[in-house]
Every structure is written in C-alpha cells, then in structure tokens.
Amino acid sequence: MNFQVTVLKILVSYPDGFALMADLKRDMAILATSGRDWAERTKRLAARVPVLDIFSQGLIERLNGGWRITEKGRAVLEFMEARPAETTTESAAPAVDPPASGPAGSPPLAVRRSSRSQRLQRRRAARERARAKAC
Asked: Per the record, where are the segments of Basic residues compositional bias (predicted)?
C-alpha cells in the first residue's frame, strides 16, 4: 500500500478535505487490511507520479491536529486517476504539475470516488450524528 496515495485518497473523501489524525489512522487501518486490491491500486496510481512527496510538494497541509488536502493535491490526484487515454503520454507528463484541463481544453476531470470511500464517508457521517446526539 502506498502511504502517500492513500492519504490523498482519504483526505479527498472528507468534507473540505480535512481529517483529524485519529480519523486518518482509522481509515488507513481499514484500507491496509482490505486486501490486495487496494495495495495494487495505490501502486498503479503512484506509478503515474514517481516523485510524489505530499509534504514537500505542498499537496497537503497540517492544521489543528489533522491534515487537509490542498488544491494542488486534488489536481495531482485527478492526474493520477485519469485514464491513460485521457492524458498525454506518461513519459511527457509532468512529475507533479498535472494539466489544468483534459485534452483539447476540455474541463478538468472530476474526482471519482470509489464505493469504498463513499462507504467510509457514510460511516463518518453516522459517527458524527451519534456524537452530536450524545451531547
């Protein structure tokens, strides 16, 4: 499992792209034990940007006991998730700065959330409702 890709995928699934460290750790544990599919997927995504460093490249920022994905982080994630036919050849692709739009000036590609990240988001919402109800 590629840690940096997993962090980007988790953060993008949260409202405003912000998650507390406890939530990140919990989601990482879930994904780490989810099987080989997730590990293989993150490895494929990481191969699209071989020099990925979410901290030094400003893809995430540390705030109030948690991390938030930046716009640059969202753009890099979109680039990694784009189908190869939708981007330029990988050898000509930039290491971290993905194109602002798709081929021929089309609008930016939407981030596609997997059903797993949607389930995680529903679980988080249910936990938040339970916490609010308990107070």
From this structure: 113-126
Specify the 3-state DSSP secondary structure of 20: strand
Q: What is the DSSP string of 45-78?
A: HHHHSTT--TTTTTSEEEETTEEEE-HHHHHHHH
Helical residues (DSSP H) of 1-135, grouped into ranges = 3-13, 21-32, 36-48, 71-81, 115-134
Q: How does pLDDT run across 45-85, given as a tens digit for each residue?
A: 888 888 889 999 999 999 989 999 999 999 999 998 887 66
What is the distance between the alpha carbons of residues 121 and 124, in angstroms, rounded to a whole number?
Answer: 5
**Domain residues of the chain, as ranges?**
3-134
pTM of the model: 0.61
